[in-house]
């Protein structure tokens, strides 16, 4: 398939455009000057917030394209209108878990035959490196690999964007579970708190997505998002907050065994979250390998002035 020239404005379809990351990707694509389409699914029914969000995109210049995962031909018709498809379908257990639905998107792209690149919903841990993940959280990685295998089997050009924890879920709360706000008095530290983790603001992840989707350097590549100033240990993150807030938190150091001690007693979604936290904060799965022959977003796009975690946390002071 002919690849879009870098810098040329591209017709992009965002699937999952009303979600937390998806809405940011839509905005970033519009800001980048891409001709932006958003899949309008009839399943949203009378969800007024999603309807209003779609209409706000339209006012900004986006095109709304009807299509349903229960209607294959509608998906084929939708993807035939664009050069690139970006999926931002949710893949977390405590919200809607829609990763497998992308198989229908792959089938539609394969039949349409015109799409020059597909960016499936990834963005976090690299699923190709998570074969050892503990269940039930391993389901996320298994399903993402199923999507990758389907993309490969269909011969679809692609880019996989991976490698960071979203600041909204892991940064503002100092990596505490069950809240998205910083703790006021006490903080749990995982292990010794010195495992390196990568944090990224969702707006920045969206900007990298909008830039990489027609870049020939990233065609059929994995792009890691590793903002240098945001490669921090949990302890460093806590210390940034303490400096901003002017108060020292009482720290409880939690061993790996204690962290997983009662995992089987938890709900499935909580078990999945505990497993993911363990891989990130105890094993260091985001930083235990080099980028190698793949690409790194901040080096490709130094013009993106990404938000550092001290800037991110400052809003909570």
From TrEMBL:
Name of the protein? NmrA-like domain
Question: InterPro entries given for it?
Answer: NmrA-like, NmrA-type/Isoflavone_red_sf, PCBER-like
Its lineage opens with:
Eukaryota, Viridiplantae, Streptophyta, Embryophyta, Tracheophyta
Q: Which UniProt keywords apply?
A: NADP, Oxidoreductase
**PANTHER family given for it?**
PINORESINOL REDUCTASE 1-RELATED, PINORESINOL REDUCTASE-RELATED
Matching entries from Pfam families are given as: NmrA
In this chain the NmrA-like domain maps to 9-313
For the keyword NADP, the answer is yes
Q: Which organism is it from?
A: Arabidopsis suecica (Swedish thale-cress)
For biological process, the GO terms are: lignan biosynthetic process
> Is the keyword NADP assigned to this protein?
yes
Q: Which GO terms describe its molecular function?
A: oxidoreductase activity
